[in-house]
Amino acid sequence: MQKIYGINRDTLKHSLSRTLFPQRCPICGEVVEDDLICRPCRRVLVPVAEPKCRICGRHLSNGSEDLCDSCRTTVHFFNRVFSLFPYNDVIKKSIADFKYHGKCEYARFYAAELYDKFYKELVKISPDVIIPVPIHIDRLSSRGYNQASLITSELSKLTGIPEVTDLLLRTGKTIAQKELGPDERRKNLKSAFSINKNSDWFSKYIKTAVLVDDIYTTGSTLDACSNVLKRFGIKYVYAICVASVES
Ligand SMILES: [Zn+2]
Ligand SMILES: [Zn+2]
Hints:
Elements: E1 3-4, E2 7-8, H1 9-20, H2 39-44, H3 69-73, E3 80-86, H4 89-100, H5 106-125, E4 129-132, H6 137-143, H7 147-159, E5 168-170, H8 182-189, E6 193-195, E7 208-216, H9 220-232, E8 236-244
Parallel strand pairs: 3-8, 4-7, 7-8
Antiparallel strand pairs: 1-2, 5-6
The protein binds zinc ion (ZN) (2 copies).
Residues 25, 27-28, 30, 38, 41 line the site of one zinc ion (ZN).
């Protein structure tokens, strides 16, 4: 390892980048040293509580021991979702800053938390690839980044699982999902996603994939993506989300 004046070069690079682009707490926005979240905010964040739906991973509020009302009545294309935090006001603001106000550095925190919480599950399902839920090229150029891609890259660095960003594309234009009900969401997403024949991964065998997204609402986006990926030939499609709306 190269040393500069007795200082490890990697350490120097790390502290320089921290000075130029300080890591901020994803909850209160204050600068944090040597961590990705400040201590008081760490205590505020609690993961999705047990019992959880065995398909969508959301907290079960219906007293059932295995499935939420939505997963009882909807046949999902994905195999299972791992959701980290309940989508409460605290995480809602954090994700909105991350998504719409350029707080890209929060991706490191989300990925680290996802890794800590779901490491064992990831080892068990042993995915070949992780794939961010894509956004349309027009949205990408107006926002400048795909928030799910940022989390995927960080998660790929932590796990060593390759990220695949050019196989699944969002080609159809859709209206913003948050303005629609469950049935309208599904209709809106029909034919929104497609497989890119020019991707290097097009000719490779992928048995298991994990989709990455920020928020799980009704599961319709993940279903539309999973449907396309399974028709392409991927046998198992799981998903990992930073937050999920109560079932
Ligand atoms: Zn904080
Ligand atoms: Zn469910």
